[in-house]
Amino acid sequence: MIATSGADLDREEPSMAMLYTMRKLSWSVICSRGNQYFWWAYHFDGKSSVTWVDENNKMTGSGTYKITGNVMKMTWFKSATTESWDVPIDTNNWTGRCRMKGLDYQLVAKARNFKPAPEDEIEPAYQEIRSPAEKTAMLEQCSQALGYIVHSQTNMEIWLSTVAICYGSAYQSFNSVMNEISATQKLAYDVLLQLSLAFLGGAGGAAAGLVAGKVVKEVMASAAGQSFIIDGIKDMAKYSIRTTGAEVFKARNGARMPVEPFLWKENVRRVVLAEFGLATAGLNFWREGINNDNDYLPAGFDPLAEIKQDLQITANGQRIPVNNLPPLDENALQFAYERSWLVGWLEKCADSVTVIPGVRASVADTLTDYGLRIGVSNIRQLVKNAIPIDYDPMLIYGAPQ
Question: Does any domain span residue 213?
Fold first, then answer.
């Protein structure tokens, strides 16, 4: 993904310098760890104080900073979070590290309002001069990229809706069996989701198609955890958050797939629209840059190739284009969910089955038949281990007095 400078983000001509002291500057800061991102604004007083504002929830705080050698240390009042930043300070791409709640994060920042002084060593701004033919070609690539986005969005929405339908159908089927045996102890929704993810990585994934199972598992884990599903959207979000994608990103922050399966169908479209909204915002940012002859797009930049590179999902180390997701066997996927829940219920909840021998035997038969129907190969042994029925009833009711 093409990164813009801090000046670009504020619609100014880019400039940069390497500073050995911190001036009175404002910065755009991205703090990241894996799929987790925070967007902050820092404001330095040029002496020893600094304030921060969270760009999403508008929370704020203050702290101090001190430069020693090639490191600038920052601490925050009423917080154990510490930061260390590299010196000299790169006004275009400043890097650092953050220790927050016992975890390590990466930091990158760009100056919002840097104005070079005469003594600064300024790297000459690179100016790209495009001919009319080059601009026309790049704008045509933007149009093709938009078509690719639309096609990918439709494909992903249909695919993810299918996953949601299979999950909901499995939930109905599983619950009907639980109700038939009058099970008083049920698996919580979050447990159902965890069991699904674990099972899709093993036998369930193989039954539904190895590649498809791994992709479903990756997408479910990302959606339920409110992470970005599509790889390149993380990068697009970084650099469109201050432009046309700001409102879309806020919508994505509130869009997640709940663990309660019947709410999935209502959330699928919201999640997909939010992520592809960021892709479209990034594309519009490029189109505007081409029209205005801005220099942050290098020579040979191909918007269509960039979009194709970004709109992919990584599952088990394999990158798969969003517009070519693996086909789903709906019956196999539904049964994979049901198998995971049945096995999990037998391990976690079977001790709630009644102590009456005849009823226990009936429950065991029902669960065995259900397991055979959905393809649990070792169901007889699992049921026997979870619901033993070969005991002396006198041990339950007590010997005669």
Answer: yes
Q: What length does the chain have?
A: 401
Place 241 in a pLDDT band, splitting at 50, 70 and 90.
very low
Mean pLDDT value of segment 158-164: 88
Q: For 317-363, write each residue's pLDDT tens digit.
A: 788 899 988 888 888 889 989 999 999 999 888 887 877 777 888 89
Residues 98 and 164 in one domain: no
Domain housing 167? 132-330
Q: Are residues 68 and 167 in the same domain?
A: no
3-state secondary structure the chain: CCCCCHHHHCCCCCCCEEECCCCCCEEEEEEEECCEEEEEEEEECCCCEEEEEECCCCCEEEEEEEEECCEEEEEECCCCCEEEEECCEECCCEEEEEEECCEEEEEEEEECCCCCCCCCCECCCCCCCCCHHHHHHHHHHHHHHHHHHHHHHHHHHHHHHHHHHHHHHHHHHHHHHHHHCCCCCCCCHHHHHHHHHHHHCCHHHHHCCHHHHHHHHHHHHHHHCCCCCCCCHHHHHHHHCCCCCHHHHHHHHCCCCCCCHHHHHHHHHHHHHHHHHHHHHHHHHHHHHHHCCCCCCCCCCCHHHHHHHHCEEEECCEEEEHHHCCCCCHHHHHHHHHHHHHHHHHHHCHHHCCCCHHHHHHHHHHHHHHHHHHCCCCHHHHHHHHCCCCCCCHHHHCCCC
> Which amino acid, one-letter code, is at 289?
G
The CATH number that applies at residue 92 is 2.40.128
Q: Are residues 215 and 312 in the same domain?
A: yes
The answer to whether residue 123 sits within a structural domain is: no
- pLDDT above 80 for 382: yes
CA dist., res. 185 & res. 163, Å (int): 26
Same structural domain for residues 104 and 156?
A: no
Number of structural domains found in the chain: 2
**In the chain, % of residues over pLDDT 70:** 76
Both 47 and 93 in one domain: the answer is: yes
Q: Do 211 and 307 lie in a common domain?
A: yes
102 and 170 part of one domain: no
Residue 388: per-residue pLDDT: 82
Q: Which of 300, 330, 360 is the last residue of a domain?
A: 330
Report the chain's mean pLDDT, rounded to a whole number.
Answer: 78
**Does residue 22 sit in the same domain as residue 68?**
yes
